[in-house]
Every structure is written in structure tokens, then in C-alpha cells.
Amino acid sequence: MLSRIRRPTWFTTANLVLGLFLLCLLLLPVVLLGTLSRMDQSQMELQAKEISILVTDIRRYYSDNVVQRIQESDGKAVLTDRYREIHGGIPIPATLSIELGQLFEQAHDDGRIQYRFISDYPFRGRGARPLDRFELEAIKQFRSNPSLQQFTQVRNPFFGDDSYRLATPVLMRKACVTCHNAHPDSPKRDWKVGDVRGIQEITIKDLHTEGGDDFAYLGLYLALVGLTATGAIHLFRRQSARLQRSNGQLLEARHREEAIQQRLRGKVEELSLLASVVGSSTVGVTIADMDRPDTPLIYANQAFYDLTGFDEAETLGRNCRFLRGPLTDPDTSAAIRRAIAKGEPCTVELINYRRDGTPFWNRLNLYPVGGSPGRPKFYVGNQTRITDPSMPMQAGTPQGEPPPASAPQG
To answer: I need a surface site. Which of 1, 138, 146, 359 has the fewest CB within 10 A?
Structure first.
């Protein structure tokens, strides 16, 4: 009887996951306030960065494309912080940043966004306010760490009066250095390009999402999410079955790939064995590249070097005609050229010369490899020294010793 006891049909992994999901939804209001607070902070940070980037780009453009260009072209415009009082006056970058900051603040009557252009070296007579601890620390950090790009402060990030302060460094550019070091009201006259003039500060205050305490539709939302979760579990089951089938297919493909790799390894081992056999052969073996100018040799085995006395540096990259000499039969050489021109194999016996000038009889076998009929990509040559007494040298030459050939000798 006990063997017939089964778990209730509702107790399945999918239903368990659904129950946990619904429980998490019931706990959603608990974490919602914290989430909204973090959203406020992220929004403050985003707006501060956007404004800072905008003002920085405007100031750089003005400095590089207005002030510096006028200075370098000897223009008649006057660069001054009191440009409103002077005919033809143009505001210097610091004045432009300050006035842009005033415009930003005027655009927000509630004072929740503030922009300031601050320096611990203000022009005399400007009536600058004292810097607070955050501003002094920001300037100190930027001057001690040139790679630092921003300095921030967050107050009451979850409850109360939220605020986010972002400070970015104001660096002296070429036009700024020229202006400030010559300005009569400047308290510092030894500025250099790249010095931290001060900071650009953005303050965002009290960015609360309206209606954050209204949860009238939260129950309906949870019900909708619950239905959605039920449908998602059904889809999950279907997708799981598809994934299992896909995994099976991938496993089969992997097995096929492993089999192909095994065959390739076998081919590589076979080619390595063939290369070892050719390299150890007692018969000279050479390969000429028919696609390169003058069909040079691109391979020769040790037997060829032993036969001819030439080494690798003296052989590769050259046409094998360097083995010919005074006793080499012109008709035999012409027969080789004709065979190569037709892309046909050829076997001849001819006199070649070793590196020391000693002639020898060489039995040369040439055969085409690769390419198409009549137009092979390579010619392989086999050279074998023959010393048959019935094959004497021509008159006036020593008997016996003869040199090798390579492929082709056309």
C-alpha cells in the first residue's frame, strides 16, 4: 500500500517556483521605498553629469574655437571679464561659464539645480564667496590626482532632503593660460597648460518622484504579474523541452566534430611521416614552384645536398639550371623544357656538376604535381647518381665523377 503513495499533483518544481515568485511580489512594497530612493539618486547623478558635460563642451569650444583663434589671428576683439563695459569685448571662458551657470539656475525657479564655476584663485574685485569643505576637498583631490575625473557627495540618499553634488576639474588650456597670466586682476600669474584652475560644480536637490506613496493600483498590478508569471512558467516548460532537444543536437554535432578532428590528426601524422620519409630518402628530392618567376626551388632534401655539394642557402630560391655545365647536353636540356612546357613527366640522363666543379651522370625524373592538366603548380624532381662505365664523359673531361640536377632544369 505504501508503494502506491504519490506526491500531490500540485507539488511540482514549476508550481514551487510560482509560489516563491508570488511571495516575492507580496514583499515588493517593503523594498519599493528603497528602490524609489535609489532611483532618485540615479536621476540626480544622471542630470548632474549631463549638465556638467554640456557646460564643459561649451567652455572648451569657446576656448578653442573663439578665444584661441582670435588670439592667433591678431583680431581686434577684446577678451575681458568686463566685456559688457568694453566695445568689442568678448567674455573669457571663466566669465562665460559663470554666466551660463546663472542661466541654468534661472531656468529652475525652485532652486533644485545649481551650477557654479569655482576657483580658489578668483579675480580681484569679483566678490567670490568662501569655498566650503566639499569644494576645497574636490580641488585638492583633482590637483593631487590628475587622472581623477569627478568628485561627488550624496546626502540623505534614502530619506529627508536628498542632494547630489558633482564636481569636475576645470583645466587650463592654452588660451586660458595666456589670458590669466596677463590679466591685471589675476592673483596667480604662473599658470601652465593642464593646471587645475578650479572646479565646475553641479548640485541637484530634492528630486522625489511624485505619487511615490500612492499604491492604489499595486494590488491590480500584483494580480497581473501573477497571471503573467503563470503564463511564463508554461512557456518555460515548452522552452525547456526545446532546449533539451537543442542540447541533444549540439551533443551530436560535438561528437561529429570530435570525429573530424580525430581524422585530421591522423592526416597530420600521416603527412609528418611522409615528410620524414622524404627527408631521410637516399634519392635526391627537389620541388620547384611553377607559379613564381623563373620557377625556383622551394624544397630540397638532404640527399640532394649530399649529392651536389650545395647547401640550402645556395639551393632554395634558384632555378636548378645552376647544376648545368660545359658537358651538359643541350638537346637533353631542350627535352626537359619541352616536357615542362606541356606539363608532362620526364625522365632523362644528363651530366650535371657538383659545387666543386666535378661532373657526374644524373638520372633525373620529373613529374608535375597540383594545378590543372598542362598547368601544374609544382614539379617534383628525383636525382640519382649513375656511374655506368658505358656512359663516358665527352672528350677532354675526366671519367667517373658526375653532378646532380634538380627539377626543373629548363
So the answer is: 1
